[in-house]
Design a protein that fits this description.
Blueprint (H helix, E strand, L loop, with lengths): L1 H6 L1 H31 L6 H20 L5 H25 L3 E8 L4 H9 L5 E7 L2 E11 L3 H11 L4 E7 L27
Antiparallel strand pairs: 1-3, 1-4, 2-3
Helix pairs in contact: 2-3, 2-4, 5-6
């Protein structure tokens, strides 16, 4: 009876492709996270993630190789890869790991912006410079990625048309950082932490 199910059209064209689709979502999501961890300098987790990424990939490929005439599996494999990329980016966005450098270039006096950033717990460094149209002021601030939107809001309050750039930073040694996030985030692990 079990053998009949594995030979049935329901298994071959629905269950098996769905399994391959899910496997690809999981392994590509893990692969995306592995690359992000390596780029952030957190190399201890990368080998563990790499192990599970390749293990799941081998299982999915094994199923495809044993069903080479099943084109539904090919479609599921490609769709799982595309969906896994999207899921991986969403997971990384939710975790908001690492620090970023925000560089603001302004012609007007930036003391008000620096005071605003400082009052919210963000450090800021001002450098005077020369642009194509005259004197400019550069404001540098390094913040945790989870505070990015709050800092952008402060910059836009200062000048809605402000020119700024954002860059990833691999490592930060020390600096001025806010203790608590101005944006309330859901932490699914909070209830299991000790003392909570």
């Amino acid at each position: 009876m079990t053998g009949d199910f594995f030979d049935s059209n329901i298994y071959l064209y629905l269950v098996l492709p769905f399994f391959i689709f899910l496997a690809r979502i999981i392994d590509v999501t893990i692969g995306t996270m592995r690359i992000i961890f390596v780029s952030k300098g957190q190399r201890a987790l990368a080998p563990i993630l790499g192990f599970f990424e390749v293990l799941i990939w081998i299982i999915a490929m094994g199923k495809i190789m044993s069903n080479l005439d099943n084109y539904a599996c090919y479609f599921a494999y490609a769709a799982g890869f595309a969906t896994g990329n999207w899921v991986g980016m969403k997971v990384e966005e939710y975790l908001a790991m690492g620090s970023i450098l925000i560089r603001v270039i302004a012609k007007r006096d930036v003391r008000q912006l620096v005071k605003k950033l400082n009052s919210h717990g963000y450090g800021a460094t001002v450098v005077d410079g020369e642009g194509s149209s005259g004197e400019v002021h550069l404001v540098y601030s390094i913040v945790n990625r989870k505070f990015l939107q709050d800092v952008i809001n402060l910059i836009e309050e200062f000048n809605p048309k402000a020119f700024f750039t954002i860059e990833d930073i691999r490592k930060v040694n020390s600096g001025i950082f806010p203790e608590k996030s101005p944006i309330r985030r859901l932490n699914p692990f909070k209830r299991w932490r000790k003392g909570k």
